[in-house]
Amino acid sequence: MNRLEKIANFAKNIHAQNNDGHGFDHITRVVALAEKILLTEPSADRELVLCACYLHDTYDEKLTDNVAGQKALVSNFLDEIFFDKTVKNKIFEIIDNISFSANLIERKTLDINGQIVQDADRLDAMGALGIIRTLEYGWAHGRELYKSTDKAVKNLTKETYHQNTGCTINHFYEKLFLLQDLLNTAEARKIGAKRDKIMHDFVKAIENESNYF
């Protein structure tokens, strides 16, 4: 078993029981999207990109109450499978700087490897599967689907982003509709354009149909 396979198994064990849109199915789609983008970005480091893809949610603050402890667990695992400190730090640098919330106040500067991981993760938040993931997250956290009087929050900070308990549809306005303009690579923007339209059509339909009750 090579290092990438070991990392995939490690991530699978962490995400196996997740039911709020951050399961291992999400991880495998991010990896597949990154592979597609990598075909158009020959200067990127494939192993670094895919390692970061597999591990990008392993200590996400949305998914664990002990970020520091979980990150230490990931760090120890990487040591065990013989990643040197320089490569390990590059993996953590990508993971720590790609999230939407980490870029709310100031957009982080990422090299091509980080840009690909970020694009792949954001693409899986978009389109039909992105809609499903958003609904799963809302259901798992007891959120109402749509409420016309519940308005989306503008000028989010990292704190208000994570604390927000508004209806699920608000998430499209607060984050998902913004992603198309935040994608880094040409390939991601091409994929994202179709997914962005799917989301807008879905939200428009929800809002229109909600007028009947």
Automatic annotation (TrEMBL):
<dbReference type="InterPro" id="IPR003607">
    <property type="entry name" value="HD/PDEase_dom"/>
</dbReference>
<dbReference type="InterPro" id="IPR006674">
    <property type="entry name" value="HD_domain"/>
</dbReference>
<dbReference type="Pfam" id="PF01966">
    <property type="entry name" value="HD"/>
</dbReference>
<feature type="domain" description="HD/PDEase">
    <location>
        <begin position="19"/>
        <end position="135"/>
    </location>
</feature>
<protein>
    <submittedName>
        <fullName>HD domain-containing protein</fullName>
    </submittedName>
</protein>
